[in-house]
């Protein structure tokens, strides 16, 4: 794998190795797990909710976005997501250049890819950061940055452990 990554970098391709602990997430190898995952989710996702037209699926190809699997936020969709390749680049092509993007992931792995693909006019924040001492602080800082960029001013979050500074 290291040699292949070095070859791609030499050709000018952006590559980042991800330690997945030898688990092939988002692949057909997850099929047995996806069945149990769906069964567990069925207890909580008890109704079919039609997703917004703004929803960009990265686990169902665009030509299938009108299928029942892609149209509804269900346990079937989530289980499919677990076992299907991630169509991240294709999805990012649909994101407006001035979008606010919040990466909900364990370490903010995709921030550089998002910024390179969508462009400098997007607001992109991650809610967690690997090896950060205080991820709750990081979370609130990220929300603050996105809000400040959106509105051009600071917003005080009541009850967020922030002192009242008297700022309007």
TrEMBL record:
InterPro entries: Ac_transferase_dom_sf (IPR001227), Acyl_transferase_dom (IPR014043), Acyl_Trfase/lysoPLipase (IPR016035), PKS_NRPS_Biosynth_Enz (IPR050091). Coiled coil: none annotated. Residues 2-147 form the Malonyl-CoA:ACP transacylase (MAT) domain. GO terms for biological process: fatty acid biosynthetic process. It comes from the Eukaryota. GO terms for molecular function: fatty acid synthase activity; oxidoreductase activity. The keyword Chloroplast does not apply. Gene3D superfamilies: Malonyl-Coenzyme A Acyl Carrier Protein, domain 2. The keyword Lipid biosynthesis applies. Keywords: Fatty acid biosynthesis, Fatty acid metabolism, Lipid biosynthesis, Lipid metabolism, Multifunctional enzyme, NADP, Oxidoreductase, Phosphopantetheine. This is Fatty acid synthase-like. It comes from Elysia marginata.
């Amino acid at each position: 794998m290291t040699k292949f990554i070095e070859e791609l970098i030499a050709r000018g391709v952006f590559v980042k190795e991800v330690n997945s602990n030898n688990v092939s997430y988002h692949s057909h190898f997850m099929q047995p797990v996806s069945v149990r995952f769906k069964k567990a989710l069925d207890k909580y996702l008890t109704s079919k909710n039609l997703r917004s037209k703004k929803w960009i699926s990265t686990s169902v190809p665009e030509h299938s976005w009108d299928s029942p699997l892609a149209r509804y936020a269900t346990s079937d969709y989530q289980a499919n997501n677990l076992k299907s390749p991630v169509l991240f680049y294709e999805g990012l092509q649909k994101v407006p250049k001035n979008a606010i993007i919040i990466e909900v992931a364990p370490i903010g792995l995709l921030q550089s890819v998002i910024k390179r693909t969508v462009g400098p006019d997007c607001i992109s924040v991650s809610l967690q950061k690997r090896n950060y001492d205080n991820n709750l602080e990081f979370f609130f800082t990220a929300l603050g940055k996105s809000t400040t960029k959106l509105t051009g001013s600071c917003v005080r979050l009541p009850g967020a452990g922030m002192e009242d500074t008297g700022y309007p």
